[in-house]
Design brief:
The chain is built from 5 helices and 11 strands; from the N terminus they run βαββαββααβαβββββ. By secondary structure, the protein is an alpha+beta fold. The chain folds into 2 domains: 185 residues, Nucleotide cyclase, GGDEF domain (Alpha-Beta Plaits), CATH 3.30.70.1230; 34 residues, no CATH class. Helix 1 crosses helix 2. The chain is globular and about 40 Å long. 32% of the residues are buried.
């Protein structure tokens, strides 16, 4: 019997670079599961019980669904950006570099049907697409010191992050355009605890006009030769389109 759809927060994670030698892959899959156990135990001990959260593991990826009774700002700020980051550091503490766990993680919310072992809903699909987005992959590859890369949906950003609860800061998140298969949406990326390289974005056309009224199309391009940390900075050189 299929359950009714209920409002849920969805977390979708995937191990970065898990393919290759089978003993390494087995280790990463195992510590991925252990990492979630540690984060959940810490959350429960802090008085935010997540025992009722549904978790499905599919090899090197996992989907977690949390009920609407748990604050979404707490889920992102305290569970994902704090407890999961701490648990990641713990499972990586004694591991050799090639066995250290790195994760891409996405967070969204919406109406979800949980019918174990299955889970369905637009938020489940959306979180998986965001997790696999090229901008997030590029952010992780461009910041090899980052163990966790997080992307949230535009709706999560607008309805949760912008209100600043639990210390969430809009300046920590960078907007990206996500296109995966038929999915196209804006997402917001943060790499907690890592120095990040600004992500590439689509140049925004600037329309000017000459004295005789002829339209000139200009574009702004940014090129960085090394890492830049300037979350509130504006860079650009205008190049007009007069041939």
């Amino acid at each position: 019997m299929t359950s009714l759809a209920l409002s849920k927060t969805v977390i979708s994670s995937d191990v970065v670079g898990s393919s290759g030698e089978r003993h390494r892959q087995s280790h990463l899959d195992s510590v991925h599961d252990t990492m979630f156990d540690l984060a959940l135990s810490a959350a429960n001990a802090a008085g935010h019980p997540l025992a009722s959260a549904f978790r499905r593991v599919d090899g090197d990826s996992a989907t977690m669904v949390i009920g609407a009774e748990v604050s979404r700002s707490w889920i992102l700020a305290d569970f994902v950006l704090r407890e999961i980051a701490i648990a990641l550091a713990e499972v990586n503490r004694a591991a050799a570099e090639k066995y250290r766990l790195r994760l891409r993680m996405a967070v969204d919310f919406g109406e979800v049907v949980v019918n174990p072992p299955h889970v369905q809903g637009d938020a489940v699909v959306g979180a998986a697409r965001l997790r696999d987005a090229r901008p997030l992959r590029d952010a992780m590859s461009g910041s090899p010191d980052a163990r966790l890369g997080v992307i949230i949906s535009d709706r999560f950003y607008r309805e949760v992050v912008v209100h600043g609860e639990r210390g969430l800061d809009v300046g920590d998140f960078q907007a990206v355009e996500v296109k995966v298969k038929t999915f196209a949406e804006r997402g917001w990326v943060v790499l907690p605890g890592a120095a990040t390289r600004p992500l590439p974005s689509t140049p925004t056309p600037v329309v000017k006009s000459t004295s005789d009224g002829q339209a000139i199309h200009a574009e702004v391009f940014n090129k960085f030769e090394d890492r830049v940390f300037a979350p509130h900075g504006v860079f650009g050189v205008v190049r007009d389109g007069r041939g």
